[in-house]
Amino acid sequence: MDSVSFVFALLKIALILGFLVTLTAVLTWVERRQCALIQDRVGPNRAVVYVPGLALKLLAGGGGLGLGAALAAAGMALREHPKAMVVCFAAAAVVALAGVVGAVRVPSGTVGIRLAGMLHPVADGIKFITKEDFVPPNGDRLLHALGPIIALFPALVTLAVVPFGDTLAVQLGAGGNLWSRLAHGRIGWADSLRHYHAAVPRFGMPTLSPDLLPVPLQIVDLDVGILYIFALAGTGIIGAAVAGWSSDNKYALLGGLRAASQMVSYEVAMGLSLVGAFMISSSLRLDDIVRWQSEHTWGIFVQPFAFVLFLATAVAEQKRTPFDAPEGESEIVAGYFLEYSGMKFSMFMMGEYMELIVSSALLVTIFLGGYAIPFVHRDGITLAFGDRVLWQAALPHVALVALSVLVFFGKLLAVCFLQLFIRWTVPRFRYDQVMRLGWRRLLPAALVNMMLTGAALIAVDHASAGIDQALRIAADVCNAVVVLGFAYGGVAFVRFLASRPKPQQELLSTSAQRAHAQGGAHTSPMQA
Amino acid sequence: MEPLYSELDEGELELPSQPMTLNVGPAHPAMHGTVRCVLELSGETILKADVQIGYLHRGFEKMCERGTWSQVFPYVDRCNYVSPMLNNVGFALAVEKMLGVTVPERCQYYRVALGELARIADHLTCNGAMAMELGAFTPFLWFMKAREMIYDIMEEETGARITHSFGRVGGMAKPPTPAFAEMVRSAVPHVLAILAEGEGLLLRNRIFIDRLQGVGVIKPEDAVALGWTGPCLRSTGVPYDVRKAHPYLVYDRFDFDVPVGSAGDNWDRFMVRLEEIRQSARILEQCLAQMPKDGPINVEDPRIILPPKDEVYSTIEGTIQHFKIVMEGIQVPAGEVYSYTEGGNGELGFYLVSDGSGTPYRVRIRPPCFAVTGALQQLIEGLMVPDIVPTFGSLNMIGGECDR
Q: What ipTM did this prediction achieve?
């Protein structure tokens, strides 16, 4: 490995880890917000930082004016380009005005900053770090400490093989070693589009040429791909089992046993549910699976059954509701992490959220097109049904890569939110029902799915050209459905944001009316 | 080649094992009301259960023997902290039976209305908590929201949200507020709408159905033999409701149904309570329509009812009357009485003995929960550990009432 790819690998690791840890904190907040939304509660609003209003006024006013001044100076410097100068001056005026208005509108006195409850994860972090780290006196100290580490580790490292963007192709400049060639390289702005499309084909890997450096946006590109994820995720079982065993508590032991048996059972169905997807793309590498979907259509359209199976088994693997029998708080109190407190407990929770992110990433990669966007390829947008091209537009390579990264993370976030929603709407299974569902329903279903996929693949291989063409058109129709669905969803979302809900207030009692007349809400224990 | 261990039986190859003893409670999230279950487990299956009650025993019945008859009300409030109004009314009716007085009609309707509100609150709490303990948190909070509406009415009427101590021998502490009927009429549709919303999440949910149906089954004969009453008994198909079988207050004037189950499992107990909320809403509607707009709320008897405050301060008769009732208590004729009403969980009985003084000689409360909890052991034996949660939840055991 040369130094360039080493540095790139470090950068990618930093990006993914930073994203993972940040998203974990954000998801805890999202979960609280969502459940408050569903359950008609206020939700997180208690973590608050009090700041003197004067400081905020100074910050807003000073920041706005300072930024405005900087923009104005930039505008002066760009005197040769009148358009850019005008833009800079306009931006300077807007920013300065916004700063002044903000400074005026900040109330005097101390101001509580809540950020809609975003400070709760921070408060959680402080609490977890400063809390007593209790180890049961008769527990196994070593294993007790090892449990959360084993549980967290696989969740941290599994994202390594998931591609989070299209391969970035850097055109190397002339001269010297790789670093100096890279320094003189270019990454495909509009002027060199045509040259780029020759080197970077629409589909498949970029052609290897001495003056082109492909940077795959994936930490490692393993041939075993998804098997690596399954192998590592399997070790998470040991964490739960060890934690339950070492806690010297019968509830924890029951929880550890439940966790171990549940995860082992669902691992099988989970692996088999994906086999169909491998057969179709004939590769285990996640990058190939995404490329197949980019060329044809999203995996959810060719493997809809597997999507449902994988979603169900993934929720079971994360031990989240309705599969949270291992931690069933009303029967075995907290299950395998009953005797954990402080940061060790937090590691279990973080591991759970990270597993959620990982499984969402897998769902996105295998079933929802990964970083691919329908009708968008390496050479830009091609709106086509089969061979009939309706509209075509070229886009710069770097913009496409940036778009693919954004799309991947956007899809990931959406699937994470969707998975969080499940928790607040269903009760939990009993332990034997979990086992029955896993072995008697999901596993045979996965096997059937595998066989049906195989039969369909053979049929397609021997199909006539007409059917082949029809399938291609069907794939493009699916892509069009996705695009239309997203357009509709986007419009609906914007309309949702723009709408102002009218709060329903039922003032029943005089005490409520009195509180309302004084400008306050009728305080009740439910609002705590 | 000979197979290994050919001389061993298959049974000998198994590792020696013995049941695990698991102590559930008294401090355990599912054991609300501090009950202790000592379980012998084989894996997750309960081989033997030993249910122990009494952790919430506070000697209420004994405490009742040292104050006046009126001072018993706070104790019966705290017996059932989920539907205290029903206990208030039950005790008041028992003392009135001894005294041989009947409260005015308006008060009877008022008691029915407050009692049915309390019953709705009780069933909402029980069913919501049951769903929550099964992991369905959202319906629970929705039901609590509905309960808050009822508590708002209670607060407005009585000044307290939970322990009202609102009943009085021979009447109620206060007449209904002018807005009472309006508040109830505006709140009940909201409560029913929230109920329907919660049902939408639960009743067609396969997981929820599988967790409840066929779990914790009891035969009607066994339930009767154990002394079960209330929704738990009705879930087995026995249509015994004190309000229908032995109508008290004005219950015979209302048109309502007694919902019964058929299997006697957790699902039936859940469904019976849901339906009873609807029936209570029906009763409330008729009750508000029939309730006299004005009229006395208390009996016209100066030996029983405290005089108005201005009379206490301005007339000697009022002062003496007030002093006698407060210091000596209401003089209840010697004798004994058993009076029973339909509480939140079933037949709530008060067996009172009076020696003719202003202090009860004996107050014995017949809590419906005691008989119901007695069956917990036979209900959960043979089930799995997670089944304790819905089974115990559906019995709606209230520690304060069971242990007293």
A: 0.79
